[in-house]
Amino acid sequence: MENAPIERHITRNCLSFLNPTSFVNVDYWDARLAEPVNAVTVLRAKLDLWLAEQCEEAGVTVMPGIKVEGLVREGNQIVGIRAGEDELTAKVVVAADGINSFISQDAGIRAKEPMKNLAVGVKSVIKLSEEKVRDRFHLTDDEGAAYAVVGDCTQGVAGGGFLYSNRDSVSIGIVVRLDDLAASGKSSSELHDHFLSHPAIAPFIEGGELLEYGCHMVAEGGKKMQHDLVRPGLVVIGDAAGFTLNSGFTLRGMDLAAGSAQAAAVAIGAALDAGLLAGVAGTLRSGV
Amino acid sequence: MEYEASYVGQDMTTYAKAPDFLENKEMYGAVGELVADVLHDIYNLDLSPRKSLVKTAWGAFKCSGWKLRRVASLGVQAVRSM
Asked: What is the mean pLDDT of each run of 10 residues along chain B (82 residues)?
């Protein structure tokens, strides 16, 4: 944590019921949340680069820019991946290929997820300055704030809005469930723009400069999306395994992704040590 | 499985019912409006005589179009799923 590129550590959590011309918030700041720090804001553009560097220092070969197109099998056993005309073999393939997980579909673990179980998030990162971020969110030093908003931020479409304070910028956006979005006839970008221009929200980002604008699909189905996560030679983790949670108070995905990855690593390590990955499919299933 | 023993699996179980609760349309508008209406009647000191907190809340609630049974059922579902 000391070396990771963290933006701010969160000591203020605001749950906001937003209406067109009013809001009711539960605004919770607590100095105890600073010791120990259990919630931080990050910018993935910086964090992912840093994580890749840590992997390489640990002896991992990172091969960016290569698209995995399918799995390589010997009988029932998954023994590697295919990218174009190249094949890479491995004792275990770990599928961390996100919410759509084409690898899980290829492995027959699941078909395309129904829209009810999926949501789309649209986010802007808006640059201000360290001083403006502190002023607008009432923070001192490296403290940070996280807002979870519900109501007019998505104009009645199932979902919510969020604001996270970074060092000198704000990450702000909305998440909406796909089936409800389709039924509403609205677009996700239209809802995003409406949220950012809401009279209670616009002052947070006034005068800022747009640095990033993007979208990301997330799981909304919760535990019922946890299809079997293991096949002979394959383990599915993170978004690919449906590990995201909307508890109403917070949106969680990165901690669950990291936790599922650690669990997979422990299980794979134990199986490797016990020599269980020599190739017997049944043993792998019961071994992990 | 390893993840089931950790916070990952256990939290997924704890919040297993949250997605169903979050399918209630009232969460995305009506709840916020109701709470704001109650607080409006408390804070809008328009020189009309004040009522007790409970009577003020009840007044706002009656004007809101909500049914008491629906509020109660949402409340129970919220508590069970979160």
From this structure: 81 83 86 93 91 91 88 88 82
